[in-house]
Amino acid sequence: MEILEPILHHYNHWITIFLMVSGLYIVVARGNMVKKLVGLALFQTSVYLLYISPGKILGGTPPILAEGFSVYSNPLPHVLILTAIVVGVATLALGLALVVRINEEFGTIEEDEIFEMISEE
Amino acid sequence: MSAQLPALQVVLPLLAALLAALVRHGGAAWLIALAASLAMPVIAFVMLTQVLDGGSISYELGGWAPPFGIEYRVDVLSAFVLLLISIAGAVMLPYARLSVAAEIASNRRAWFYAMYLLCLAGLLGIVITGDAFNAFVFLEISSLSAYAMIGMGPNRRALFAAYQYLIMGTIGATFYVIAVGLLYTMTGTLNLVDMSERLADVSNMRPLFAALAFLTVGVSLKFALFPLHVWLPNAYAFAPSFTTAFIAATATKAAVYLLLRYFYSVYGVGVVFGAQPVSEILLFLSVAAMFVASLVAVFQDNVKRMLAYSSVAQIGYITLGLSLANQAGLTGGIVHLFNHAMIKGALFLAVGGVVYRLGFARIGQFAGLGRKMPLTMAAFVLAGLALIGTPGTAGFISKWYLALGALEKGWWWLVALIVVSSMISIFYIGRVVEQAYFREPTEETAKARDLPLSMLLPIWILAGATVYFGIETSLTVDVARRAAEMLLTGLR
Q1: Is this structure's pTM higher than 0.90?
Q2: For A4-120, CATH number?
Protein backbone atom coordinates (compact mmCIF):
# COMPACT_ATOMS: atom_id res chain seq x y z
CA MET A 1 0.00 0.00 0.00
CA GLU A 2 2.93 2.34 0.59
CA ILE A 3 3.75 2.34 -3.09
CA LEU A 4 0.17 3.21 -3.97
CA GLU A 5 -0.11 6.03 -1.49
CA PRO A 6 1.41 8.84 -3.60
CA ILE A 7 -0.79 7.73 -6.48
CA LEU A 8 -3.98 7.62 -4.42
CA HIS A 9 -3.09 10.84 -2.66
CA HIS A 10 -2.89 12.67 -5.97
CA TYR A 11 -5.59 10.71 -7.74
CA ASN A 12 -7.05 13.92 -9.22
CA HIS A 13 -3.82 14.52 -11.11
CA TRP A 14 -3.77 10.97 -12.42
CA ILE A 15 -7.27 11.36 -13.81
CA THR A 16 -6.24 14.65 -15.39
CA ILE A 17 -3.16 13.11 -16.99
CA PHE A 18 -5.13 10.10 -18.23
CA LEU A 19 -7.72 12.32 -19.92
CA MET A 20 -5.05 14.61 -21.30
CA VAL A 21 -3.03 11.82 -22.88
CA SER A 22 -6.08 10.01 -24.28
CA GLY A 23 -7.27 13.23 -25.88
CA LEU A 24 -3.90 13.88 -27.43
CA TYR A 25 -3.70 10.26 -28.59
CA ILE A 26 -7.04 10.55 -30.40
CA VAL A 27 -5.85 13.71 -32.15
CA VAL A 28 -2.73 11.95 -33.38
CA ALA A 29 -4.14 8.49 -34.13
CA ARG A 30 -7.50 9.22 -35.78
CA GLY A 31 -7.91 10.17 -39.42
CA ASN A 32 -11.55 11.19 -39.14
CA MET A 33 -11.59 14.94 -38.76
CA VAL A 34 -14.59 15.06 -36.43
CA LYS A 35 -13.05 12.42 -34.16
CA LYS A 36 -9.84 14.44 -34.10
CA LEU A 37 -11.81 17.42 -32.86
CA VAL A 38 -13.44 15.27 -30.19
CA GLY A 39 -9.96 14.27 -29.04
CA LEU A 40 -8.89 17.88 -29.07
CA ALA A 41 -11.89 18.87 -26.95
CA LEU A 42 -11.08 16.08 -24.48
CA PHE A 43 -7.49 17.31 -24.29
CA GLN A 44 -8.61 20.86 -23.61
CA THR A 45 -11.20 19.77 -21.05
CA SER A 46 -8.67 17.77 -19.06
CA VAL A 47 -6.80 21.00 -18.37
CA TYR A 48 -9.88 22.36 -16.61
CA LEU A 49 -9.36 19.70 -13.93
CA LEU A 50 -5.73 20.67 -13.59
CA TYR A 51 -6.85 24.15 -12.58
CA ILE A 52 -9.93 23.42 -10.55
CA SER A 53 -8.89 20.47 -8.41
CA PRO A 54 -5.99 22.24 -6.60
CA GLY A 55 -8.32 25.19 -5.97
CA LYS A 56 -10.56 23.13 -3.73
CA ILE A 57 -9.48 22.82 -0.12
CA LEU A 58 -11.06 19.95 1.83
CA GLY A 59 -13.37 21.49 4.42
CA GLY A 60 -13.04 24.89 2.79
CA THR A 61 -16.09 27.02 2.12
CA PRO A 62 -16.82 29.48 -0.65
CA PRO A 63 -14.84 32.65 0.04
CA ILE A 64 -17.62 34.58 1.78
CA LEU A 65 -16.87 36.20 5.11
CA ALA A 66 -19.00 34.59 7.79
CA GLU A 67 -18.84 33.85 11.48
CA GLY A 68 -17.04 30.59 12.26
CA PHE A 69 -15.47 29.90 8.85
CA SER A 70 -11.84 30.60 8.24
CA VAL A 71 -10.83 28.08 5.54
CA TYR A 72 -11.77 29.10 2.04
CA SER A 73 -11.47 27.47 -1.35
CA ASN A 74 -9.86 29.47 -4.12
CA PRO A 75 -12.51 30.82 -6.50
CA LEU A 76 -10.12 32.17 -9.11
CA PRO A 77 -9.50 28.86 -10.97
CA HIS A 78 -13.23 28.59 -11.62
CA VAL A 79 -13.29 32.02 -13.19
CA LEU A 80 -10.24 31.26 -15.30
CA ILE A 81 -11.71 27.99 -16.48
CA LEU A 82 -14.99 29.67 -17.31
CA THR A 83 -12.97 31.75 -19.76
CA ALA A 84 -11.09 28.68 -20.99
CA ILE A 85 -14.41 26.91 -21.61
CA VAL A 86 -15.52 29.80 -23.79
CA VAL A 87 -12.28 29.60 -25.76
CA GLY A 88 -12.70 25.82 -26.04
CA VAL A 89 -16.25 26.11 -27.32
CA ALA A 90 -15.19 28.72 -29.88
CA THR A 91 -12.34 26.51 -31.06
CA LEU A 92 -14.57 23.47 -31.37
CA ALA A 93 -17.25 25.44 -33.20
CA LEU A 94 -14.76 26.88 -35.66
CA GLY A 95 -13.16 23.46 -36.15
CA LEU A 96 -16.51 21.83 -36.87
CA ALA A 97 -17.46 24.66 -39.23
CA LEU A 98 -14.25 24.05 -41.14
CA VAL A 99 -15.00 20.33 -41.29
CA VAL A 100 -18.47 21.08 -42.72
CA ARG A 101 -16.90 23.29 -45.40
CA ILE A 102 -14.23 20.66 -46.10
CA ASN A 103 -16.96 18.07 -46.51
CA GLU A 104 -18.74 20.34 -48.99
CA GLU A 105 -15.60 20.93 -51.03
CA PHE A 106 -13.85 17.55 -50.86
CA GLY A 107 -16.81 15.25 -50.23
CA THR A 108 -15.06 13.51 -47.35
CA ILE A 109 -13.86 14.11 -43.81
CA GLU A 110 -11.19 11.40 -43.80
CA GLU A 111 -7.73 12.91 -43.75
CA ASP A 112 -5.99 10.24 -45.83
CA GLU A 113 -8.59 10.53 -48.59
CA ILE A 114 -8.03 14.27 -48.71
CA PHE A 115 -4.27 13.75 -48.82
CA GLU A 116 -4.81 11.48 -51.83
CA MET A 117 -6.93 14.09 -53.61
CA ILE A 118 -4.35 16.78 -52.90
CA SER A 119 -1.46 14.73 -54.23
CA GLU A 120 -3.41 14.14 -57.46
CA GLU A 121 -4.00 17.87 -57.97
CA MET B 1 -6.21 60.79 -22.64
CA SER B 2 -2.62 59.65 -22.93
CA ALA B 3 -3.01 57.70 -19.71
CA GLN B 4 -5.58 55.53 -21.47
CA LEU B 5 -3.37 54.65 -24.42
CA PRO B 6 -2.56 51.08 -23.32
CA ALA B 7 -6.26 50.23 -23.16
CA LEU B 8 -7.02 51.98 -26.44
CA GLN B 9 -4.34 49.95 -28.20
CA VAL B 10 -6.45 46.84 -27.72
CA VAL B 11 -9.99 48.16 -27.31
CA LEU B 12 -9.99 50.19 -30.50
CA PRO B 13 -9.44 47.29 -32.94
CA LEU B 14 -11.74 45.11 -30.83
CA LEU B 15 -14.60 47.60 -31.15
CA ALA B 16 -13.77 48.19 -34.79
CA ALA B 17 -14.08 44.43 -35.38
CA LEU B 18 -17.58 44.50 -33.95
CA LEU B 19 -18.45 47.50 -36.08
CA ALA B 20 -17.03 45.89 -39.22
CA ALA B 21 -19.12 42.78 -38.61
CA LEU B 22 -22.23 44.89 -38.08
CA VAL B 23 -22.00 47.06 -41.22
CA ARG B 24 -22.00 43.93 -43.41
CA HIS B 25 -20.62 45.94 -46.33
CA GLY B 26 -17.11 45.16 -47.60
CA GLY B 27 -16.11 48.71 -48.49
CA ALA B 28 -17.39 50.24 -45.27
CA ALA B 29 -15.75 47.51 -43.23
CA TRP B 30 -12.48 48.22 -45.00
CA LEU B 31 -12.74 51.91 -44.08
CA ILE B 32 -13.35 51.02 -40.44
CA ALA B 33 -10.40 48.63 -40.49
CA LEU B 34 -8.25 51.30 -42.12
CA ALA B 35 -9.13 53.90 -39.50
CA ALA B 36 -8.37 51.53 -36.64
CA SER B 37 -5.17 50.26 -38.25
CA LEU B 38 -3.83 53.74 -38.89
CA ALA B 39 -4.47 54.78 -35.29
CA MET B 40 -2.48 51.82 -33.94
CA PRO B 41 1.07 52.88 -34.87
CA VAL B 42 0.40 56.39 -33.54
CA ILE B 43 -0.59 54.98 -30.15
CA ALA B 44 2.31 52.53 -30.17
CA PHE B 45 4.80 55.23 -31.11
CA VAL B 46 3.63 57.61 -28.40
CA MET B 47 3.92 54.81 -25.85
CA LEU B 48 7.39 53.88 -27.10
CA THR B 49 8.64 57.45 -26.65
CA GLN B 50 7.05 57.58 -23.20
CA VAL B 51 8.72 54.32 -22.23
CA LEU B 52 12.11 55.35 -23.59
CA ASP B 53 11.95 58.57 -21.55
CA GLY B 54 10.26 57.52 -18.37
CA GLY B 55 10.35 53.76 -17.85
CA SER B 56 7.60 51.17 -17.96
CA ILE B 57 3.92 52.06 -18.10
CA SER B 58 1.60 50.08 -15.88
CA TYR B 59 -2.10 50.31 -16.64
CA GLU B 60 -4.65 48.97 -14.18
CA LEU B 61 -7.50 47.55 -16.19
CA GLY B 62 -10.81 48.54 -14.65
CA GLY B 63 -8.98 50.25 -11.81
CA TRP B 64 -8.09 46.99 -10.07
CA ALA B 65 -4.55 47.23 -8.79
CA PRO B 66 -2.11 44.48 -9.80
CA PRO B 67 -1.35 41.74 -8.90
CA PHE B 68 -5.09 41.12 -8.30
CA GLY B 69 -6.43 42.93 -11.32
CA ILE B 70 -5.24 42.50 -14.86
CA GLU B 71 -2.32 44.75 -15.61
CA TYR B 72 -1.34 46.08 -19.02
CA ARG B 73 2.36 46.61 -18.94
CA VAL B 74 4.38 48.44 -21.57
CA ASP B 75 8.15 48.37 -21.35
CA VAL B 76 10.81 48.87 -24.02
CA LEU B 77 10.43 45.39 -25.48
CA SER B 78 6.65 45.32 -25.58
CA ALA B 79 6.44 48.86 -26.96
CA PHE B 80 8.86 47.85 -29.71
CA VAL B 81 6.85 44.75 -30.66
CA LEU B 82 3.59 46.74 -30.45
CA LEU B 83 5.04 49.25 -32.89
CA LEU B 84 6.13 46.45 -35.23
CA ILE B 85 2.70 44.80 -35.30
CA SER B 86 0.79 48.04 -35.68
CA ILE B 87 3.07 49.31 -38.46
CA ALA B 88 2.60 46.05 -40.35
CA GLY B 89 -1.18 46.38 -40.05
CA ALA B 90 -1.29 50.05 -41.01
CA VAL B 91 1.00 49.72 -44.02
CA MET B 92 -0.66 46.61 -45.38
CA LEU B 93 -4.30 47.52 -45.01
CA PRO B 94 -4.50 49.91 -48.01
CA TYR B 95 -3.26 46.94 -50.07
CA ALA B 96 -6.07 44.77 -48.75
CA ARG B 97 -8.98 46.50 -50.52
CA LEU B 98 -8.19 45.35 -54.06
CA SER B 99 -6.49 42.11 -53.12
CA VAL B 100 -9.34 41.01 -50.88
CA ALA B 101 -11.92 42.11 -53.45
CA ALA B 102 -10.23 39.81 -55.99
CA GLU B 103 -10.00 36.79 -53.71
CA ILE B 104 -13.03 36.86 -51.43
CA ALA B 105 -16.73 36.89 -52.30
CA SER B 106 -18.43 40.22 -51.65
CA ASN B 107 -20.80 38.88 -48.98
CA ARG B 108 -17.83 37.69 -46.91
CA ARG B 109 -15.57 40.72 -47.14
CA ALA B 110 -16.97 42.49 -44.09
CA TRP B 111 -16.46 39.31 -42.06
CA PHE B 112 -12.95 39.10 -43.37
CA TYR B 113 -12.12 42.58 -42.10
CA ALA B 114 -13.77 41.78 -38.78
CA MET B 115 -11.48 38.74 -38.51
CA TYR B 116 -8.47 40.84 -39.42
CA LEU B 117 -9.30 43.38 -36.71
CA LEU B 118 -9.83 40.64 -34.13
CA CYS B 119 -6.49 39.16 -35.10
CA LEU B 120 -4.83 42.57 -34.75
CA ALA B 121 -6.45 43.14 -31.35
CA GLY B 122 -5.37 39.68 -30.20
CA LEU B 123 -1.76 40.12 -31.29
CA LEU B 124 -1.48 43.54 -29.68
CA GLY B 125 -3.13 42.12 -26.57
CA ILE B 126 -0.60 39.29 -26.24
CA VAL B 127 2.18 41.82 -26.24
CA ILE B 128 0.66 44.47 -24.00
CA THR B 129 -0.81 42.33 -21.25
CA GLY B 130 1.09 41.63 -18.06
CA ASP B 131 -1.15 38.74 -17.08
CA ALA B 132 -0.38 35.12 -17.93
CA PHE B 133 -3.94 33.97 -18.46
CA ASN B 134 -4.99 37.11 -20.27
CA ALA B 135 -2.16 36.41 -22.71
CA PHE B 136 -3.73 33.00 -23.40
CA VAL B 137 -7.09 34.56 -24.18
CA PHE B 138 -5.50 37.04 -26.58
CA LEU B 139 -3.41 34.25 -28.10
CA GLU B 140 -6.60 32.39 -28.92
CA ILE B 141 -8.41 35.49 -30.16
CA SER B 142 -5.64 36.07 -32.65
CA SER B 143 -5.28 32.39 -33.56
CA LEU B 144 -8.98 31.67 -34.05
CA SER B 145 -9.42 34.71 -36.27
CA ALA B 146 -6.31 33.67 -38.20
CA TYR B 147 -7.76 30.18 -38.80
CA ALA B 148 -10.94 31.77 -40.11
CA MET B 149 -9.03 34.16 -42.37
CA ILE B 150 -6.87 31.36 -43.77
CA GLY B 151 -9.94 29.21 -44.39
CA MET B 152 -11.31 31.98 -46.62
CA GLY B 153 -8.53 31.41 -49.16
CA PRO B 154 -9.62 31.00 -52.79
CA ASN B 155 -8.38 27.40 -53.20
CA ARG B 156 -10.30 24.62 -51.41
CA ARG B 157 -7.03 23.44 -49.90
CA ALA B 158 -7.11 26.58 -47.77
CA LEU B 159 -9.84 24.93 -45.70
CA PHE B 160 -7.72 21.89 -45.03
CA ALA B 161 -4.69 24.05 -44.23
CA ALA B 162 -6.79 26.07 -41.76
CA TYR B 163 -8.04 22.86 -40.15
CA GLN B 164 -4.52 21.52 -39.69
CA TYR B 165 -3.39 24.86 -38.29
CA LEU B 166 -6.35 24.81 -35.90
CA ILE B 167 -5.39 21.37 -34.56
CA MET B 168 -1.73 22.25 -34.08
CA GLY B 169 -2.43 25.74 -32.81
CA THR B 170 -4.93 24.51 -30.24
CA ILE B 171 -2.52 21.88 -28.96
CA GLY B 172 0.06 24.65 -28.61
CA ALA B 173 -2.34 26.94 -26.78
CA THR B 174 -3.45 24.14 -24.47
CA PHE B 175 0.18 23.37 -23.62
CA TYR B 176 0.53 27.03 -22.73
CA VAL B 177 -2.52 26.83 -20.44
CA ILE B 178 -1.08 23.74 -18.74
CA ALA B 179 2.12 25.69 -18.10
CA VAL B 180 0.22 28.67 -16.70
CA GLY B 181 -1.80 26.29 -14.50
CA LEU B 182 1.36 24.78 -13.03
CA LEU B 183 2.89 28.21 -12.49
CA TYR B 184 -0.28 29.44 -10.84
CA THR B 185 -0.43 26.42 -8.54
CA MET B 186 3.15 27.01 -7.45
CA THR B 187 3.09 30.80 -7.10
CA GLY B 188 -0.57 31.72 -6.58
CA THR B 189 -0.39 34.62 -9.01
CA LEU B 190 -0.97 35.30 -12.68
CA ASN B 191 0.68 38.70 -12.88
CA LEU B 192 3.98 38.20 -14.67
CA VAL B 193 5.97 40.67 -12.56
CA ASP B 194 4.55 39.29 -9.35
CA MET B 195 5.16 35.76 -10.62
CA SER B 196 8.82 36.40 -11.31
CA GLU B 197 9.24 37.73 -7.75
CA ARG B 198 7.49 34.76 -6.19
CA LEU B 199 9.31 32.18 -8.30
CA ALA B 200 12.47 33.02 -6.37
CA ASP B 201 10.87 31.66 -3.19
CA VAL B 202 9.69 28.38 -4.67
CA SER B 203 11.89 25.58 -3.43
CA ASN B 204 10.44 22.65 -5.40
CA MET B 205 11.67 23.35 -8.89
CA ARG B 206 10.25 20.30 -10.64
CA PRO B 207 6.76 21.70 -11.41
CA LEU B 208 8.38 24.89 -12.62
CA PHE B 209 10.58 23.02 -15.05
CA ALA B 210 7.58 21.01 -16.22
CA ALA B 211 5.81 24.32 -16.80
CA LEU B 212 8.84 25.62 -18.67
CA ALA B 213 8.81 22.58 -20.94
CA PHE B 214 5.08 22.87 -21.68
CA LEU B 215 5.45 26.58 -22.25
CA THR B 216 8.39 26.27 -24.61
CA VAL B 217 6.79 23.54 -26.71
CA GLY B 218 3.37 25.21 -26.73
CA VAL B 219 4.56 28.65 -27.73
CA SER B 220 7.05 27.16 -30.20
CA LEU B 221 4.14 25.44 -31.93
CA LYS B 222 2.54 28.85 -32.32
CA PHE B 223 5.56 30.46 -33.92
CA ALA B 224 6.52 27.34 -35.89
CA LEU B 225 9.93 26.56 -34.48
CA PHE B 226 11.45 23.73 -36.53
CA PRO B 227 10.30 20.86 -36.34
CA LEU B 228 6.94 22.14 -35.06
CA HIS B 229 6.39 24.07 -38.29
CA VAL B 230 4.36 21.55 -40.32
CA TRP B 231 1.19 23.64 -40.22
CA LEU B 232 2.87 26.77 -41.54
CA PRO B 233 3.76 26.16 -45.23
CA ASN B 234 0.24 25.17 -46.27
CA ALA B 235 -1.42 27.83 -44.15
CA TYR B 236 0.72 30.54 -45.73
CA ALA B 237 0.51 29.10 -49.24
CA PHE B 238 -3.29 28.90 -49.45
CA ALA B 239 -4.42 31.83 -47.33
CA PRO B 240 -5.60 35.00 -49.10
CA SER B 241 -2.54 37.04 -50.10
CA PHE B 242 -3.18 39.82 -47.63
CA THR B 243 -3.64 37.36 -44.77
CA THR B 244 -0.40 35.60 -45.60
CA ALA B 245 1.55 38.84 -45.57
CA PHE B 246 -0.06 40.10 -42.37
CA ILE B 247 0.24 36.85 -40.43
CA ALA B 248 3.77 36.16 -41.63
CA ALA B 249 4.82 39.62 -40.48
CA THR B 250 3.09 39.68 -37.12
CA ALA B 251 1.62 36.47 -35.69
CA THR B 252 4.86 34.55 -35.25
CA LYS B 253 6.49 37.65 -33.78
CA ALA B 254 3.91 38.01 -31.02
CA ALA B 255 4.44 34.36 -30.05
CA VAL B 256 8.22 34.79 -29.99
CA TYR B 257 7.68 37.81 -27.76
CA LEU B 258 5.77 35.61 -25.34
CA LEU B 259 8.66 33.17 -25.15
CA LEU B 260 11.15 36.01 -24.60
CA ARG B 261 8.95 37.32 -21.81
CA TYR B 262 8.83 34.02 -19.97
CA PHE B 263 12.45 33.06 -20.51
CA TYR B 264 13.97 36.35 -19.51
CA SER B 265 11.46 38.28 -17.43
CA VAL B 266 9.51 35.61 -15.55
CA TYR B 267 11.96 32.76 -15.07
CA GLY B 268 15.14 34.75 -15.53
CA VAL B 269 18.26 33.82 -17.46
CA GLY B 270 19.81 31.94 -14.56
CA VAL B 271 16.94 29.49 -14.17
CA VAL B 272 16.22 28.87 -17.85
CA PHE B 273 19.73 28.61 -19.17
CA GLY B 274 21.51 27.58 -15.98
CA ALA B 275 19.91 24.37 -14.82
CA GLN B 276 18.48 22.88 -18.01
CA PRO B 277 19.93 22.46 -21.51
CA VAL B 278 17.37 24.91 -22.94
CA SER B 279 20.04 26.97 -24.64
CA GLU B 280 21.59 23.93 -26.34
CA ILE B 281 18.25 22.53 -27.53
CA LEU B 282 17.11 25.89 -28.83
CA LEU B 283 20.44 26.50 -30.53
CA PHE B 284 20.31 23.11 -32.24
CA LEU B 285 16.73 23.58 -33.44
CA SER B 286 17.45 27.10 -34.65
CA VAL B 287 20.42 25.98 -36.72
CA ALA B 288 18.42 23.01 -38.02
CA ALA B 289 15.64 25.42 -39.05
CA MET B 290 18.11 27.75 -40.76
CA PHE B 291 19.44 24.91 -42.88
CA VAL B 292 16.64 22.39 -43.39
CA ALA B 293 13.87 24.91 -44.03
CA SER B 294 16.08 26.98 -46.34
CA LEU B 295 17.02 23.88 -48.33
CA VAL B 296 13.39 22.79 -48.59
CA ALA B 297 12.52 26.30 -49.77
CA VAL B 298 14.93 26.00 -52.67
CA PHE B 299 12.92 23.09 -54.08
CA GLN B 300 9.45 24.62 -53.82
CA ASP B 301 7.45 25.35 -56.95
CA ASN B 302 4.85 27.59 -55.37
CA VAL B 303 6.53 30.91 -54.53
CA LYS B 304 4.21 31.57 -51.59
CA ARG B 305 5.13 28.18 -50.16
CA MET B 306 8.79 28.85 -50.80
CA LEU B 307 8.60 32.08 -48.80
CA ALA B 308 6.71 30.20 -46.09
CA TYR B 309 9.59 27.75 -45.68
CA SER B 310 11.91 30.71 -45.72
CA SER B 311 9.89 32.12 -42.80
CA VAL B 312 10.55 28.95 -40.82
CA ALA B 313 14.26 29.44 -41.52
CA GLN B 314 14.16 33.09 -40.51
CA ILE B 315 12.40 32.24 -37.25
CA GLY B 316 15.47 30.09 -36.66
CA TYR B 317 17.64 33.22 -36.71
CA ILE B 318 15.35 34.90 -34.18
CA THR B 319 15.42 31.95 -31.78
CA LEU B 320 19.16 31.68 -32.33
CA GLY B 321 19.51 35.15 -30.85
CA LEU B 322 17.23 34.08 -28.02
CA SER B 323 19.34 31.02 -27.24
CA LEU B 324 22.64 32.94 -27.22
CA ALA B 325 21.39 34.90 -24.19
CA ASN B 326 24.03 37.59 -24.39
CA GLN B 327 23.70 41.28 -25.16
CA ALA B 328 24.66 41.21 -28.83
CA GLY B 329 22.88 37.97 -29.68
CA LEU B 330 19.66 39.01 -28.01
CA THR B 331 19.82 42.41 -29.70
CA GLY B 332 20.19 40.59 -33.03
CA GLY B 333 17.21 38.38 -32.31
CA ILE B 334 14.97 41.28 -31.32
CA VAL B 335 16.08 43.41 -34.27
CA HIS B 336 15.38 40.49 -36.56
CA LEU B 337 11.82 40.33 -35.23
CA PHE B 338 11.33 43.79 -36.68
CA ASN B 339 13.44 43.43 -39.81
CA HIS B 340 11.99 40.08 -40.77
CA ALA B 341 8.48 41.49 -40.43
CA MET B 342 9.32 44.25 -42.92
CA ILE B 343 11.18 41.91 -45.31
CA LYS B 344 8.65 39.09 -45.36
CA GLY B 345 5.78 41.55 -45.49
CA ALA B 346 7.23 43.14 -48.64
CA LEU B 347 7.97 39.76 -50.26
CA PHE B 348 4.53 38.29 -49.58
CA LEU B 349 2.80 41.48 -50.72
CA ALA B 350 4.79 41.45 -53.96
CA VAL B 351 3.91 37.81 -54.63
CA GLY B 352 0.32 38.62 -53.69
CA GLY B 353 0.48 41.32 -56.36
CA VAL B 354 1.48 38.71 -58.95
CA VAL B 355 -1.40 36.52 -57.80
CA TYR B 356 -3.70 39.55 -58.10
CA ARG B 357 -2.67 40.14 -61.71
CA LEU B 358 -2.26 36.56 -62.91
CA GLY B 359 -4.06 34.37 -60.37
CA PHE B 360 -1.16 32.06 -59.60
CA ALA B 361 2.19 31.92 -57.83
CA ARG B 362 3.99 29.00 -59.53
CA ILE B 363 7.61 29.82 -60.09
CA GLY B 364 7.56 28.90 -63.79
CA GLN B 365 4.81 31.43 -64.31
CA PHE B 366 6.98 34.32 -63.11
CA ALA B 367 8.71 34.26 -66.50
CA GLY B 368 9.43 37.74 -67.79
CA LEU B 369 7.60 39.50 -64.99
CA GLY B 370 10.62 41.73 -64.41
CA ARG B 371 9.66 43.45 -67.64
CA LYS B 372 5.89 43.24 -67.26
CA MET B 373 5.63 44.27 -63.61
CA PRO B 374 8.91 46.18 -63.14
CA LEU B 375 8.03 48.07 -59.96
CA THR B 376 6.55 45.06 -58.20
CA MET B 377 9.45 42.79 -59.06
CA ALA B 378 12.04 45.45 -58.21
CA ALA B 379 10.56 45.64 -54.72
CA PHE B 380 10.70 41.85 -54.55
CA VAL B 381 14.39 41.90 -55.44
CA LEU B 382 15.13 44.61 -52.90
CA ALA B 383 13.38 42.74 -50.10
CA GLY B 384 14.99 39.52 -51.32
CA LEU B 385 18.43 41.09 -50.97
CA ALA B 386 17.52 42.11 -47.44
CA LEU B 387 16.39 38.55 -46.73
CA ILE B 388 19.75 37.22 -47.86
CA GLY B 389 21.46 39.76 -45.63
CA THR B 390 23.26 41.94 -48.16
CA PRO B 391 25.23 44.76 -46.48
CA GLY B 392 23.25 47.99 -46.51
CA THR B 393 19.95 46.22 -45.87
CA ALA B 394 18.08 45.46 -42.68
CA GLY B 395 18.79 41.73 -42.92
CA PHE B 396 22.50 42.42 -42.67
CA ILE B 397 22.08 44.39 -39.45
CA SER B 398 20.32 41.57 -37.62
CA LYS B 399 22.72 38.89 -38.85
CA TRP B 400 25.65 41.11 -37.91
CA TYR B 401 24.49 41.28 -34.31
CA LEU B 402 23.77 37.55 -34.26
CA ALA B 403 27.32 36.93 -35.47
CA LEU B 404 28.66 39.30 -32.80
CA GLY B 405 26.70 37.36 -30.22
CA ALA B 406 28.22 34.11 -31.44
CA LEU B 407 31.71 35.64 -31.38
CA GLU B 408 31.19 36.81 -27.82
CA LYS B 409 30.89 33.14 -26.93
CA GLY B 410 33.89 32.32 -29.10
CA TRP B 411 31.82 30.21 -31.45
CA TRP B 412 33.43 30.77 -34.84
CA TRP B 413 31.62 27.76 -36.26
CA LEU B 414 28.29 29.41 -35.51
CA VAL B 415 29.30 32.53 -37.44
CA ALA B 416 30.20 30.26 -40.35
CA LEU B 417 26.81 28.53 -40.09
CA ILE B 418 24.98 31.88 -40.12
CA VAL B 419 26.85 32.92 -43.25
CA VAL B 420 26.43 29.59 -45.06
CA SER B 421 22.71 29.34 -44.28
CA SER B 422 22.26 32.88 -45.58
CA MET B 423 23.90 31.74 -48.80
CA ILE B 424 21.15 29.17 -49.30
CA SER B 425 18.56 31.94 -49.45
CA ILE B 426 20.43 33.34 -52.48
CA PHE B 427 19.33 30.21 -54.33
CA TYR B 428 15.61 30.43 -53.72
CA ILE B 429 15.39 34.20 -54.16
CA GLY B 430 17.67 33.74 -57.19
CA ARG B 431 15.29 31.23 -58.76
CA VAL B 432 12.50 33.81 -58.79
CA VAL B 433 14.82 36.56 -60.01
CA GLU B 434 16.10 34.31 -62.78
CA GLN B 435 12.57 33.60 -63.97
CA ALA B 436 11.47 37.20 -63.73
CA TYR B 437 14.43 38.86 -65.38
CA PHE B 438 16.16 36.34 -67.64
CA ARG B 439 13.18 34.65 -69.27
CA GLU B 440 10.94 35.88 -72.01
CA PRO B 441 7.35 36.57 -70.96
CA THR B 442 5.09 33.64 -71.78
CA GLU B 443 1.62 33.94 -73.23
CA GLU B 444 0.15 33.90 -69.74
CA THR B 445 2.43 36.55 -68.28
CA ALA B 446 2.37 38.82 -71.33
CA LYS B 447 -0.91 40.39 -70.20
CA ALA B 448 0.43 41.34 -66.77
CA ARG B 449 0.73 45.01 -65.88
CA ASP B 450 2.14 46.77 -62.87
CA LEU B 451 -0.07 47.06 -59.82
CA PRO B 452 -2.36 49.98 -58.99
CA LEU B 453 -0.89 52.54 -56.62
CA SER B 454 -2.84 51.45 -53.55
CA MET B 455 -1.12 48.06 -53.77
CA LEU B 456 2.25 49.26 -54.98
CA LEU B 457 2.69 51.84 -52.24
CA PRO B 458 2.51 49.38 -49.30
CA ILE B 459 4.96 47.07 -51.08
CA TRP B 460 7.40 49.90 -51.60
CA ILE B 461 7.04 51.31 -48.10
CA LEU B 462 8.02 47.93 -46.69
CA ALA B 463 10.74 47.33 -49.29
CA GLY B 464 12.04 50.83 -48.64
CA ALA B 465 11.98 50.15 -44.92
CA THR B 466 14.28 47.16 -45.40
CA VAL B 467 16.88 49.50 -46.91
CA TYR B 468 16.18 52.40 -44.56
CA PHE B 469 16.62 50.24 -41.46
CA GLY B 470 19.78 48.82 -42.96
CA ILE B 471 21.38 52.24 -42.87
CA GLU B 472 19.58 54.23 -40.20
CA THR B 473 19.42 51.91 -37.21
CA SER B 474 18.64 54.31 -34.37
CA LEU B 475 15.02 53.14 -34.11
CA THR B 476 15.60 49.42 -34.44
CA VAL B 477 19.01 48.60 -33.01
CA ASP B 478 19.08 51.16 -30.22
CA VAL B 479 15.65 50.19 -28.95
CA ALA B 480 16.43 46.50 -29.31
CA ARG B 481 19.68 47.00 -27.41
CA ARG B 482 17.83 48.64 -24.54
CA ALA B 483 15.25 45.86 -24.61
CA ALA B 484 18.02 43.24 -24.49
CA GLU B 485 19.70 45.07 -21.61
CA MET B 486 16.45 45.12 -19.72
CA LEU B 487 15.82 41.42 -20.36
CA LEU B 488 19.29 40.40 -19.28
CA THR B 489 19.32 42.45 -16.09
CA GLY B 490 15.85 41.36 -15.02
CA LEU B 491 12.45 42.88 -15.24
CA ARG B 492 12.60 45.41 -12.45
Answers
A1: yes
A2: 1.10.287.3510
